[in-house]
Design brief:
The chain is an alpha/beta fold and 204 residues long. Helix content is 47%, strand content 10%. Helix 9 packs across helix 10 (176-196).
Length: 204
């Protein structure tokens, strides 16, 4: 059965933290020891309320981040962002950037995807300026973190564009490549930051 056939018959269910937890344990379950898997567990406390499918992107961000104006004012670090939004494509990134206008206030948003933008350009923008929100694809964000172009030490929120579906009705975690890159990014640094309590995860 195709995903689209199943979806047409049943209304989409909003993603919950357990969905991501299960995805990670399935992904790592085959080739990790029990101790390693334990270290990759996301504590419930790191999750923000999930989107119940009634929110616009801006209204969701307002709900999970009521102190945004203060966070925005206090953020002065280059090479880093306060909020990182991960989605499945460049096109979807642009949609989310447009729909964040009502929330963002006086802050700078950076596009972090590979389409038409060289990684060197993004690295030099991050080095020279202060950005508050970055929206992009997991592959490019991961590459920037690996090359020390993006530092996650002052990141407080990571939002996964979990419920949105493309024309083929696939969510980001239904696309094997995007799923793998997202899990790699989580494993590389985000899970550790969540466990330490410095990053909160939201499923939009």
């Amino acid at each position: 059965k195709k995903i689209s056939d199943i979806l047409q018959k049943s209304p989409p269910k909003p993603g919950v933290p357990a969905d991501l937890q299960n995805l990670l344990s399935q992904h790592f379950g085959e080739n990790r020891s029990v101790i390693e898997i334990e270290e990759l567990k996301l504590p419930d406390s790191c999750f923000l309320p999930a989107n119940d499918l009634t929110h616009s992107f801006s209204s969701y961000l307002k709900e999970i981040c009521p102190k945004w104006a203060k966070l925005r004012k206090n953020h002065k670090e280059k090479k880093s962002v306060v909020m990182l939004v991960i989605c499945s494509s460049a096109l979807r990134s642009l949609e989310l950037i447009k729909s964040v206008t009502a929330f963002k206030g006086d802050c700078r948003v950076l596009k972090l995807f590979a389409k038409h933008i060289k990684i060197k350009e993004q690295m030099s923008m991050l080095e020279k300026g202060v950005f508050h929100i970055a929206v992009g694809t997991p592959g490019r964000v991961k590459a920037l973190v690996e090359q020390d172009g993006l530092c996650l030490s002052s990141t407080k929120y990571m939002i996964l564009d979990w419920n949105w579906r493309d024309q083929k009705l696939r969510r980001m975690m239904d696309i094997p490549e995007i799923k793998k890159e997202t899990i790699d990014l989580l494993e590389m640094s985000i899970i550790k930051l969540c466990r330490e309590g410095s990053v909160k995860l939201g499923l939009f």
